[in-house]
Amino acid sequence: MAFITVDSVSKEFKVEVKQRGVIGKLRSLVRPHIVTRQAVRHISFSVEEGEIIGYLGPNGAGKSTMIKMLCGIMHPSSGHIQVNGCIPYKERRKFSMTIGVVFGQRSQLWWDLPAIDSLELYKDIYKVSSTSYKRSLNEFNELLDLHEFAHTPVRQLSLGQRMRMELAAAMLHHPQILFLDEPTIGLDIMVKEKIRDFILQWNKQRKTTVILTTHDVIDIERLCNRILIINSGEMAFDGSAKELEQLYTKEKQIIVTFKEAIDWLPPLLHATVQWREGNQICFAVERSEDVQEVIKRIVNSYEVTDIQIRGADLESIIKQVYQTGKRDDVHEVVYSHFS
């Protein structure tokens, strides 16, 4: 059985649309105009234990709503969610002991206390033994260098230091699943790498399942073995980064540096010239399987000093998925106080 099962889940919100002017406001009191907005539409997927999933989507796509349902903060309007044998919103107390959560924009640390005091409090909340606590603290110090700022009040920590402490607080009780929302947002390169290495090592050692929402493509490339893309509340893609590239990349580029400039080049089957610059010529090849054949013909006919093969970068591909799946439809229902 899958570690996480999401079966045809939808979530609706009812929002009152305010009307303009005095007459409009009076009319709203008698007959309010209510709009039903579907944040998530019939989403289905499953996750195996130990997977690191990149959960992506543009702003307003329904990512946060889905994460809140997986955490048990919200309940679905329809469909079924099961995580590690629990229905999150029905068994919140039991379920909360098995998950760790880090939201980049919200802190779970006590602002005026030294950072280490927050870990001490979480030790008691999650009933972590002193032996386990000390062992975990040593690991955190080794991987995240917490000792450098552990006794500094949280309000005085830099963003990178606070995020490292947030991770430690979320992982202190060794949760079986970790929800990360933009864990590297606004951080410098060195801190980002430290956090990525920590997530990878913890996942490898303990098979912790990780659900990661991020807009940082390097996070996806370094951490995720699978990508889920949600757009306009619907699932737009489920697969690996390689499968995403194969699905949305229409052509490959072959950039050839010749020993001498080529004045004239006969047409090549399966390849078209995109641009020329000095000794370099860029060829576009539509199918990946034709790349080797095109290179073979060029190398057999000309003296070549360098060959580069490029596909579309992951960021461009994800942007293409976002643009392809845009929807503006909203289901509206009008209700009256007197109905």
UniProtKB/TrEMBL annotation:
Keywords: ATP-binding, Nucleotide-binding, Transport
Gene3D superfamilies from the UniProt entry: P-loop containing nucleotide triphosphate hydrolases
Origin superkingdom: Bacteria
PROSITE patterns: ABC_TRANSPORTER_1, ABC_TRANSPORTER_2
Domain ABC transporter, residue spans: 24-257
Molecular-function GO terms, alphabetical: ATP binding; ATP hydrolysis activity
Alphabetized InterPro entries for the sequence: AAA+_ATPase (IPR003593), ABC_transporter-like_ATP-bd (IPR003439), ABC_transporter-like_CS (IPR017871), ABC_transporter_ATP-binding (IPR050763), P-loop_NTPase (IPR027417)
Protein name according to UniProt: ATP-binding cassette domain-containing protein
Organism this protein belongs to: Paenibacillus agilis
Upper taxonomic lineage: Bacteria, Bacillati, Bacillota, Bacilli, Bacillales
